[in-house]
Amino acid sequence: MMDSLVLLWVAFCLFFFLFKAQRPKNFPPGPFSLPIFGNLLQLNLENPINDLKKLRLRYGNVYSICFGSRPVVVLNGVHAVKEALVNQSVEFAGRPQDLMINHVTKNEGVVLLNHGPVWRDVRRFSLMTLRNFGLGKQSMEERILGEVSYITSHLEKCAGKSMDPQNLFHKAASNIITTVLFGTRYEHEDKFLQLFIQLFKELSKIANGPWAMIYDTFPVVRNLPLPFQKAFQKFEVLKDAVKDLISQHKMSWVPRQPRDLLDCYLDEMEKREDDSSFNESQLVTLLLDLHFAGTDTTSNTLLTTFLYLMTHPDVQERCQKEIDQVLGEKLQASFEDRHRMPYTQAMIHEAQRVANTVPLSVFHTTTKDTQLMGYDIPKGTLIIPNLSSVLNEESQWKFPHDFNPSNFLNDEGEFVKPEAFMPFSTGPRMCLGEGLARMELFLVLVTLLRHFQFIWPEDAGEPDYSTIFGATMSPKPYRMDVRLRNKRECVIQSQNTTE
């Protein structure tokens, strides 16, 4: 009997030491990890943000956890994040190549491409082409304002009633980027548009959800018929839809006369016949990358903004007074008007801060052996920039836990942007869609606040500010009452403010 117990104990010890995750020498500290599971059982897989916050309090701004046997470094606070992603941008510019999201996308596109010549080439092409088609220019303003007119028409029909805004802003943001990518705008009832939005939402939830964590932690289960297989199926549906669109586009494509980014890529493929980094498979994923980057963060930020404006009517009213004063009799806003609207600018940035739309950024890896904050980080280490910790860091914000535009105003009431404002990450791998998102948020919000008042419905109960965790955060579904503002009152208000 004793011999059996001793053998059992020896077997357990061997199992423990063989499968226990080993942290490298002088690696960032972290919690005890279990064999095989690592720290998986210590995290709330539905939303690990609070658990990561607790670990920061215990281990500091740079600590480690384990995905199975794989050590992972979590960066917290503005100093650690900037030191890695800005000051050591090349060393921390890699992307992991073996997570579920990589296998879903086959490491194509631009967002998940590993650091190197191909990534630089594709990113340069994407940014240059986006700029050529209006990013930061008046032509892009016209695209955005054209789509805003459809939102306005819809809200006018809903005036005096309660309505569900969940898909309205997703459809609008999707249409704005599709005019750049495909040269096409879709009616809000179009099945293609609705398919894209629905699948993007579902993929976002899966990508940072519990089943993705299980896939990443336990390679042995990856071929089993578990729920993470839905991500592969849904992405294939999206790819097939884009392939059909490319085939249709080719029928009217005239080389060197580009109508949109898709035409530009086809030109580039023709020019680089021997360059394997520009091919049709890569094109499909690039279009999906850019579509997602130009849609999900913006639409979820708009949903968050209106949730807080309804429940902070004083902030909404102050924005409307400023908008009325600046625009006066002007027919529509322009992006340049933001320089004369410090409070509205502050409100929009504060909404981005509390929306915390991409809380864990996109995971990085180290491209070489390096050091960070006194710790040794080996090449290939998975890095999680906890942007949530930056956007709520108590030492960086006047009101870190409240919705308050004063976080972006100085004592003179001028708009200021603290260095801790990085909702789209920072460094060379920051989100491609940031410039478009900034313009969209300003023009959409200013136009809608000028024409409508948004009210929390009386029968809606207490507002719920908690979020749905995923690759991008979204507020929980809500309804809002929409009322037309009296235009004559707006003009009088503007005149009174001026006087």
Automatic annotation (TrEMBL):
GO terms for biological process: organic acid metabolic process; xenobiotic metabolic process. SUPFAM superfamilies: Cytochrome P450 (SSF48264). Its cofactor is heme. This is Cytochrome P450 2F2-like. Keywords: Heme, Iron, Membrane, Metal-binding, Monooxygenase, Oxidoreductase, Signal. It is found in: Membrane. GO terms for cellular component: cytoplasm; membrane. The keyword Signal applies.
